Amino acid sequence: MKRIAILISGGGSNMVALVRSMTGDHPGRPVLVLSNDPEAGGLKKAAEMGIATAAIDHRPFRGDRAAFEAALLEPLLAAGPDIICLAGFMRILTPAFIARFEGRMLNIHPSLLPKYPGLHTHQRALDAGDTEAGCTTHEVTQDLDAGPILGQARVPILPGDTADTLAARVLVQEHILYPATLRRFAAGDRSPIFLP
Ligand code: GRF
User: Fold this and answer.
1) Total domain count for the chain?
2) Per-residue confidence (pLDDT) for residue 189, from 0 to 100
3) 75: cis peptide before it, omega within 30°?
4) Burial tier of 52 (Cβ tally within 10 Å: 0-12, 13-18, 19+)
5) Nearest CA to ligand 1 atom 1
6) What is the separation of C-alpha 50 from the centre of its chain, rounded to a whole number of angstroms?
7) Which of 109, 122, 138, 175 is catalytic?
8) CA triplet 18, 20, 26: central angle to 5 degrees?
């Protein structure tokens, strides 16, 4: 059974989907939900689902990423994770931190990578006049939003879409793609998943 730690920064809707998926013959189980924001709404949701939680507020570290990550590692390593899932985690991790978990750290990004790495992905797709958008699960490597792709889900961009309506349509697919990706990855299968 693989021990899964999930890192969040906000509401944690992807974390909830991942936790709910880890039942029965799923090869993973959640062991920790960890946030850089003690007020993250996802921490309460995780606690309500009976998952251990921890929070290390990044603000007192004033941009000293290494010091923040040293503090983050304490509860994280104590949980003994086999796999780390970044799920709406909004801090950029240093190469040293990534190197510790490379090959067993996953992320979900709300665009069809390699298009639109970084932020404001939906508005950028709309501004570009794209006819489709989506989300990507990938392994986390030193290059931001650029690791080996483990899955993608596509949605149409519809007339009148705003960044918010598009984000909501993509989020539905994120909650399908990320659990499917984790189940396959935890079983040792890195072959990518393409939805629909
Ligand atoms: C989602 O759009 C996800 O793609 C991105 O962060 C947003 C919020 O995710 N990674 P969540 O609801 O906190 O899981």
Assistant:
1) 2
2) 97
3) no
4) middle
5) 88
6) 20
7) 109
8) 80
For residue 63, the model assigns a pLDDT of 87
In DSSP terms, which residues pair with 135 in a beta bridge? 153
Ligand 1 pocket: which of 174, 175, 177, 178 to mutate (most atoms <8 Å of CB)? Answer: 174
Is 109 a known active-site residue? Answer: yes
pTM over 0.85: yes
> Of the residues 101, 128, 156, which one is the last residue of a structural domain?
101
Q: Which stretches of the chain drop beneath a pLDDT of 70? A: none
Residue nearest to atom 5 of ligand 1 (CA): 88
Mean pLDDT over the full length of the chain: 97
CB-based contact 137:177 (threshold 8 Å): yes
Which amino acid is it at 12? G
Same domain? 95 vs 1: yes
Instruction: Report CA(78)–ligand 1 centroid distance (Å).
Output: 25
Q: Which atom of ligand 1 is nearest to the CA of 17?
A: 14
Q: What confidence score (pLDDT) does residue 8 get? A: 98
Q: Rounded to 5 degrees, what are φ and ψ at 163?
A: -60, -35
Residues 43, 53 contacting (CB under 8 angstroms): yes
